[in-house]
Design goal:
- This protein is α+β, with helices and mostly antiparallel strands and 158 residues long.
- It has 5 helices and 6 strands; from the N terminus they run E-H-E-H-E-E-H-H-E-H-E.
- The longest helix is centred in the middle third of the chain and has 17 residues.
- The protein starts with a strand and ends with a strand.
Length: 158
C-alpha cells in the first residue's frame, strides 16, 4: 500500500523549502519510506487530491496546477463529519470498548483521517507528515478565495 504526502502552505513554497524525504520518513511514525514524485505525477496527484480525496467542491486548482483556492463548504462538511463520529461512537458498547474491536478501530480511523483517506500532509515547513485531522484544523479559518500552495508531493509507504 502507498499514498501521497502533500506539503501545503498559505504562502508560496520555494523549491529550496521542500522537505527532505529522509527526515519526513524518520520523523513520521507511520512512514517506512518516502520519495519525491516527478512533475507529471505531482500534477496528477494534486488534481486527484482536489477531485477525489478532499471534500467535494471545497477547492479549485489554478491553471498551473499547484495552487488551490478555497471555495467554501467546510462548515457543511463538518456537520456531516460529526454525524459520522456519532454513528461510529454509538456502535461502541461497554463490552467491546475494553478490547480490540472493529468498531473502536473505525472510530479511531474517522478521528485520525476525517477525509477518509490515508493521504498525509506536511503543513508549512514541518519536518513530519500528519493525517488529515491536522489538515482540516489548518484550513479551518480559511475564507472563500484564500489560497493554499502545494509544494512537494511525496509518495510514501508505511
Amino acid at each position: 500500500m502507498h499514498d501521497n504526502i502533500f506539503q501545503v502552505s498559505r504562502k508560496p513554497i520555494a523549491r529550496d523549502d521542500y522537505p527532505d524525504t529522509d527526515l519526513i520518513a524518520e520523523n513520521t511514525e507511520w512512514i517506512g519510506y518516502c520519495d519525491e514524485v516527478d512533475k507529471g505525477t505531482r500534477l496528477n496527484a494534486i488534481k486527484h487530491l482536489v477531485d477525489e480525496i478532499l471534500p467535494e467542491g471545497m477547492f479549485s486548482i489554478d491553471s498551473e496546477g499547484d495552487v488551490l483556492t478555497y471555495i467554501g463548504g467546510l462548515e457543511e462538511w463538518a456537520e456531516e463529519y460529526v454525524k459520522k463520529i456519532q454513528d461510529a461512537a454509538n456502535k461502541l458498547t461497554p463490552s467491546n470498548i475494553l478490547t480490540w474491536c472493529k468498531e473502536k478501530k473505525a472510530l479511531k480511523d474517522i478521528m485520525r483521517s476525517p477525509i477518509g483517506h490515508s493521504t498525509m500532509f506536511v503543513l508549512d515547513n514541518n519536518l513530519f507528515a500528519e493525517f488529515s485531522c491536522e489538515f482540516i484544523e489548518y484550513i479551518n479559518d480559511m475564507q472563500p478565495g484564500d489560497k493554499l500552495f502545494i509544494g512537494s508531493v511525496l509518495n510514501y509507504h508505511p
